[in-house]
Design a protein that fits this description.
By secondary structure, the chain is an alpha+beta fold. The chain has two domains: about 1-120, Impact, N-terminal domain (Ribosomal Protein S5, domain 2, 2-Layer Sandwich); about 125-190, Alpha-Beta Plaits (2-Layer Sandwich). Helix content is about 25%, strand content about 40%. The strands form two sheets. Strands 1, 7, 8, 9 and 10 form a five-stranded antiparallel β-sheet that branches. A five-stranded antiparallel β-sheet has the order 2-3-6-4-5, with helices on both faces. Helix 2 (about 70-80) crosses helix 3 (about 100-115). The chain starts with a strand and ends with a strand.
């Protein structure tokens, strides 16, 4: 699985229509803001079609282009390239020549692949964010066990709660001990 290092833009002209492509690395809470920003930046655009994949959630929109001629092809480019945490949006300014359904699919696919060719890809690794509850007597053993992993938070109260990120292949280590795991959330993060 891969994501992109930073935002990329490209532009194509196909039969007098302008296709401006934007590829964004995303966090889940950024999607609406990015789309709103594009609508403000391009108020006279005929269509702003998009697709995104974030973790195991995906969505795409044709923005009034004929059904499955814009958003789905954009999504397929992301899926085919094993991308995650990525939003692609293509702004179209209609040039007066209708492309037909097949022409639209080809145009949006080309707009997406042209933009993707300019991107720097980063590998992602799957892992878990775990929330573990332990006693004060056992905390040093747990910290030793977690020494090679990223500890995100430690909360000292009646018991101790530790939040850590653990690679997917190492999660079985935790299950072999008797620590109380309160949360076990699958995450994807940059491995670079």
């Amino acid at each position: 699985m891969k994501t992109i290092k930073n935002e990329v833009t490209s532009e194509l002209e196909i039969k007098n229509s302008r296709f401006i492509s934007y590829l964004f690395p995303i966090e889940n809470d950024q999607i609406d803001d990015i789309l709103l920003s594009l609508k403000r930046e391009h108020p006279k655009a005929t269509h702003i079609c998009y697709a995104y994949i974030y973790q195991n959630i995906f969505h795409y929109s044709d923005d009034n282009e004929p059904s499955n001629t814009a958003g789905l092809p954009l999504y397929m480019v992301l899926e085919k390239n094993h991308l995650n945490r990525v939003l692609i949006a293509v702004v179209r300014y209609f040039g007066g020549i209708k492309l037909g359904a097949g022409g639209l699919v080809r145009a949006y696919t080309k707009a997406a692949t042209t933009c993707l060719e300019k991107a720097t890809l980063i590998s992602l690794e799957e892992g878990y964010q775990v929330k573990i509850k332990t006693s004060y007597e056992e905390v040093n053993n747990l910290l030793y066990l977690l020494r090679n992993y990223q500890i995100k938070d430690t909360n000292y109260q009646e018991d101790i709660t530790i939040i850590a990120e653990i690679p997917k292949e190492d999660i079985s280590i935790l299950h072999s001990y008797s620590y109380e795991i309160l949360e076990n959330i699958l995450i994807t993060k940059n491995s670079n």
